[in-house]
Amino acid sequence: MKVCKLIRKHSFKDVRVFEKEAISLKKLGYDVTIVAGKTRGVVFGPNRSSIKDPAFKKDSFEYKGIKFLTYDIVEITYTHINKMIKALETNTQNYFPDKLYEKALSTNADIYHAHELHTLYEAVQIKRTLRKKGKNVKVIFDAHELEANSKFLTLLMKEVDHLITVSDSIKEIYQKRYPNVPITVIYNTPSYQEELQKDKTYKNSFVIAFEGVVTYQKGDPRKIIEIANLCNKSMKNFSFEIFGRIHPTMKERNLISQHPSINCKWIDYHNLPTELNKVHVGYIYFDTSNANRKYAMPNKFFSYLNNGIPVVVNQSIDMKRFIEKYQCGIVIDKVNPTAEDYYNQFYRLYQNRKLLSQMGQNARKAMKDICWEKMEERLSEIYKSLQT
């Protein structure tokens, strides 16, 4: 059975789209093609940098057994969306902003799996086109976040056969909106990580980590600098590791790059377990005024836990539920905790290594229940249900 995954904003190497779902579907016996975008004629990596490798310059190529078709991205505007709405309402297949529809249609797939609101439009239009030709295909919408309840999404959801989302709270909201659409939660968890021997420096140091892109809404560079300053005064061999990058608009980039206790570097997905092996605590701050961050279960959360690292997070519904269930971290029950609030919890764990160790063990036990191997089973069940 042929599967076509459609992306526009995501990298062709995106961890969820490619490393997890596409590789799992291939393992399950599906013929998988990803239609992925290029900017300025070049595909881009998860860190948004252009990839100049000649192997990926062709319009079509194969990588790790997955086929790729590429196209030049057109950024979607309100004007595009209004035209898309009109095309949906009139059931016409004559408006497409770029070549995504054309490339995806050429795969003649049985299941079209869209990972973004705007690529769901192409998936639905392909379903309508092929239905007119006598072929019934299925559409999956993999909603990585909570989309606004718009006219555009309401029209698209009429053609969706299964909705995948990333947290239980978001599932509950979507169920109320679209009661007739089956919904499954697939967490963004990694494959279960066997316990590694701790880094030699682990016992005599204290390392806090943040994984991902630091912005004012995620991580907040101001908090990171202040936390590092406070920890420096009271902890021996302290460091704050950023496994990612500082967003280019952050004026604190230079301060972080020059800070004696903060290190920042981009780490490939496959190398994260080794780097996390020296980490004691994971730091998460999300500006939860945004609904998606309020209900988030982010990659970094699971990366920490999978490596036996407790987490310290601010007020957030789904992470709080999980932490309280498994006792694998600390929730600061404030929307916007201060750096000192975080420091107090980090210092508590710095002093109480027994509690730190117990939370780490609880984290690993929790991941056995929801590791990617378990999520792969859920993905398999979805695809089996669409073949009947």
TrEMBL record:
Keywords: Glycosyltransferase, Transferase. It holds the Pfam family Gtf3_C. One of its GO terms (molecular function) is glycosyltransferase activity. InterPro entries: Glyco_trans_4-like_N, Gtf3_C. Residues 23-188 form the Glycosyltransferase subfamily 4-like N-terminal domain. It comes from the Bacteria. The keyword Glycosyltransferase applies. Residues 230-336 form the Glucosyltransferase 3-like C-terminal domain. This is Glycosyltransferase involved in cell wall biosynthesis.
